[in-house]
Design a protein that fits this description.
Elements (H helix, E strand, L loop, with lengths): L36 H4 L2 H37 L8 E7 L7 H15 L2 E5 L8 H17 L2 H9 L3 E6 L7 H14 L5 E7 L4 H6 L2 H4 L2 E7 L3 H13 L10 H15 L2 H16 L11 H8 L4 H8 L4 H7 L3 H9 L4
Helix pairs in contact: 2-3, 2-9, 2-11, 10-11
Protein name: Origin recognition complex subunit 3 N-terminal domain-containing protein
InterPro entries: ORC3 (IPR020795), ORC3_N (IPR045667)
Pfam families: ORC3_N
């Protein structure tokens, strides 16, 4: 047998005159909640959503009011960048020791700069700038990505002269040698391109002087901005929002102490405290429809009229219900409250 001959087996598809067309897929519906519709319509879930949205709105409004002035001053400084020979405008934003919140703060700042002035903003993080090459690549990528987000906007940007603003949220995490070379490169282009650099400093201004030697600091025009410290910010949120008398939901003493201890002894993160508070709110309302009574008097009456026997029994077993029953003097009234759901 000729060694070059072989037998091959295969599977072949014949259309046989058939016309197969790709059927258009119907777009899937967007799911706003992973819970079923039977859950989202329950009183406890509706009340939870309403309560959390109220807390969230009040906190965001308060934080916006607290940081408005410092952000306006910073944006004004960035917008009035002067071209100086080999001098780079640098703004040091003292954010305090609340590292987990830095990204949110700088995202807000970036959005405010884009709204206020015609500027291309690049946020460069320490993990993306281990070496000078990585830092330059991150800068170029951020600028190109920002301009490609909207085609119309990118066309307009190419026709106008742009400011370029670089934000570094985690200054202490950067390699000092990389940061020094990066600043020197930017300063060499500062006369041709309006460039401003914003550094997020978590500790103190002395960290800048420790990381940047004289031959680098002589190439920058430094200005200091300071945001509200994390303890003061949390204290303001507690007084004006979470512990406000207008709120129907309040933390217990143990839960409040636990959350404040985590904040003070671990991370100084306001965002972390708010997320933990949301979890407490969620845990409270998910116990059942009885927790929907955490509302005003008129709404509570509407919910009570829809309760069944098991939900009334749940109310009778609550620790706060016993002192009320013991305070009653009429024995018949006590019996009716404990046995009659229609009372």
């Amino acid at each position: 047998m000729d060694p070059t001959l072989s037998v091959s087996k295969g599977v072949f598809v014949f259309k046989n005159g058939g016309n197969f067309k790709n059927k258009k897929r119907t777009p899937s519906k967007k799911v706003s909640c992973i819970l079923g519709e039977e859950t989202t319509k329950e009183p406890f879930y509706r009340k939870y959503s309403e309560t959390w949205e109220q807390f969230k709105s009040d906190i965001e409004t308060l934080q916006k009011e607290s940081n408005t002035q410092i952000l306006e001053d910073l944006v004004k400084y960035v917008g009035n960048v002067d071209k100086l020979a080999n001098i780079l405008p640098v703004a040091a934003l003292l954010t305090g020791i609340n590292q987990p919140d830095h990204e949110d703060q700088f995202a807000t700042l970036s959005h405010r700069i884009k709204e206020s002035i015609n500027s291309s903003v690049a946020i460069i993080k320490a993990r993306d700038a281990a070496h000078l090459k990585n830092a330059i690549e991150s800068l170029v990528f951020e600028v190109i990505q920002n301009q490609d987000d909207d085609n119309r906007e990118s066309k307009r940007l190419r026709k106008t002269k742009l400011n370029m603003d670089m934000l570094k949220p985690d200054f202490e995490s950067f390699n000092p040698l990389v940061l020094q070379d990066f600043i020197l490169i930017l300063s060499s282009y500062s006369q041709r391109i309006p460039i401003a650099l914003i550094l997020g400093v978590a500790t103190a201004v002395s960290a800048l002087h420790s990381a940047l030697p004289y031959h680098v600091t002589s190439k920058i025009n430094l200005r200091i901005f300071q945001t509200q410290s994390a303890p003061l910010g949390l204290n303001e949120i507690l007084e004006k929002v979470i512990l406000s008398p207008k709120q129907n939901f309040h933390l217990s003493g143990k839960a409040f102490k636990f959350l404040t201890h985590i904040f003070l002894f671990y991370d100084f993160s306001i965002a972390g405290f708010i997320h933990s508070f949301k979890y407490c709110l969620m845990e409270h309302f998910l116990q059942g429809n009885v927790m929907a009574l955490c509302s005003n008097y008129e709404e509570s009456l509407k919910y009570i009229n829809k309760f069944d026997h098991e939900e009334f029994e749940y109310i009778r077993r609550l620790p706060s219900f016993r002192p009320y029953v013991e305070s009653l003097q009429d024995y018949q009234k006590i019996i009716d409250i404990l046995t009659d759901d229609e009372y």
